Amino acid sequence: MNWASFGDRASGQVFDLPDRAFLAAAARRLPRTGWERFFVSPKKLLRWHRELVGFKWARYGKRRPGRPPLQAEVQELILRLARENPRWGYKRIQGELLKLGINVSATAIRKLLSRRGLGPAPRRGGTTWRQFLAQQASSMVACDFFTIETVWLKRIYVLVFIELATRRVHLAGCTTNPDGTWVTQQARNFTFDLDERAQQLRFLIHDRDAKFCGPFDEVFASEGLQVIRTPVRAPRANAICERWIRTVRTECLDWLLIFSRRHLERVLKIYVRHYNRQRPHRALQLRAPEQQEFASTPLSVDATVRRRDRLGGLLHEYYEAAA
Hints:
The chain is of the alpha/beta class. The protein has three domains: about 5-60, no CATH class; about 70-125; about 130-285, 2-Layer Sandwich (Nucleotidyltransferase, domain 5). Helices cover about 40% and strands about 15% of the residues. It contains ten helices and seven strands. The protein has helices spanning about 15-30, 40-60, 70-85, 90-100, 105-115, 130-135, 180-190, 215-220, 240-250, 260-275; strands spanning about 140-150, 155-165, 170-175, 205, 225-230, 305-310, 315-320. α1 packs across α2 (about 40-60) and α7 (about 180-190) runs parallel beside α8. The longest helix is centred in the N-terminal third of the chain and has 20 residues, at about 40-60. It is elongated, with a radius of gyration of 38 Å. The N and C termini lie far apart (about 85 Å). About 20% of the residues are buried.
């Protein structure tokens, strides 16, 4: 409705919006015998009043029925609480919001979660691999094989273990024939060090490679570890170990020619020692896996920083020279 179009175009009289509203309202207050005192005809007054009423209801019709929608920030907070706490029901989420000073009904929370595809708490979704690994990382270790081709095109298999919480790597061994006897012996060698840990391991993750035979799993079961086999064709289920294999390739093995199994073992022992003691890790706030904390005092201005070369200069380690 455009009130600017109101007016008597035929008579040349044009009234502003406040004037038209006042005349239309006044016409309803005065008897019809007094309408002849107005500057416009009674017909025009009635038409203005009808248009005024229509304008009122046109504006009212633009309002959505029901309760006003929740603010976008509140909706995002509700969805965040539901995703981060899949066992929380509507009432629990409502209570957490009240603690933050936000009053939202349980019905509004239920409707919002339903629109976004999040059902009730028991059916909101099970634990994902990422959540499982994060919750159990302190008691989990993963293992995997990878292969290296020597300059004579001879394939060597390498077995490694990695602790998920500390990212500490254990080199089990290298062989050209990873049969059940060899793999089982490497499992025994690794379990010898488990008693020295402050916190005992509970889970072992490995893929469904046939080299991980039954006796291999039985060694860890006898130590109280539960063996978890990753799903078929799901390398992300053992992502931390797979990522380390990529790291050792890109930082070390891809830049060297390997001549024999002994040569490969010597190279990997040096790299694993460098990785555990010197290499910063993003998941550990840029600490090395075996580094407890950063230096308590900053490096002085006149201090001398020395470099230690490993693997013929392929790896560099920096330290402060003694005064």
